[in-house]
Amino acid sequence: AQSVTQLGSHVSVSEGALVLLRCNYSSSVPPYLFWYVQYPNQGLQLLLKYTTGATLVKGINGFEAEFKKSETSFHLTKPSAHMSDAAEYFCAVSDPRGYSTLTFGKGTMLLVSP
Amino acid sequence: DSGVTQTPKHLITATGQRVTLRCSPRSGDLSVYWYQQSLDQGLQFLIQYYNGEERAKGNILERFSAQQFPDLHSELNLSSLELGDSALYFCASSGRDSYNSPLHFGNGTRLTVT
User: Fold this and answer.
1) Per-residue pLDDT in tens (0 to 9) along chain B, 114 residues
2) Residue B56 and residue A45: Cβ atoms within 8 Å?
3) Given CB atoms, is A9 within the 8 Å cutoff of chain B?
């Protein structure tokens, strides 16, 4: 079975500061990994995904994530936070072997202060 | 706008009742997924349909059922409702399976059981 752990239910940063949201996964096979963002009163939106190939993945809105197999991690970063980045972020994993569905972490709320 | 439409947006009902949540997937998408989001459990995968057939089943209670119709819209039926069923229910769609094409989420149906 797969699982995802997101460290920190809330992360607070100042505008312009580095954003780092942590995600660790557990999977018996090399997984596919995703980050989704949820703005208030909206559904989830894909930020970026890793399937195969380059381990540093760039997504929308200046976010990127690096797949580190040895650390079973897929942390999300952004060099400079913007007020509009305030939202809840979900890391997810899928099993590429079959009819895969996504297993989500519990989410991290990003708070950005001026 | 993700292109996934969920109705109704809000639903308030009493314990023991039955409700139906409706989802219209993005044009051209064959896969429909249902997720339940609650504060304590996070995002839980319920069930997936692909082109009218059940593809995968997650933590879906026996009191819950779903189907996907020939026009590809889907309905999630929740019966004998309990207070603990209060949650946000999301529908998502994708072109094929989630690892080859990303999930597109609707804005959810907020169910309140009183």
Assistant:
1) 789 999 999 999 999 999 999 999 999 899 999 999 998 888 999 999 999 999 888 889 999 999 999 999 999 999 999 999 999 999 999 886 655 677 899 999 999 999
2) no
3) no
Any CB–CB contact under 8 A between A41 and chain B? yes
φ/ψ region of A65 (left if φ > 0, alpha if ψ in -120 to 50, else beta) reads beta
| Structure-token pair, residue A35 | 């980050």
Closest chain B CA to residue A50: B99
Q: Which of B42, B99, B108 sits opposite A94 (nearest CB)?
A: B99
Reported as a single tens digit per residue, the pLDDT across A73-89 is 999 999 999 999 999 99
Chain B residues touching A29 at Cβ < 8 A? none
Cβ atoms of residues A36 and A90 within 8 Å: yes
A31 vs A52: CA distance, rounded Å: 9
CA proximity to A32, closest of A70, A74, A61: A74
B65–chain A nearest CA distance, Å: 18
Helix (H) or strand (E) holding A37: strand A32-38
Dihedrals φ, ψ of B102, to 5°? -65, 160
* Closest by Cα among B4, B19, B98 to B66: B19
Residues in chain A closer than 8 A to B99 (CB atoms) = 32, 51, 94, 96, 100
Chain A residues closer than 8 Å to B45 by CB: 101-104
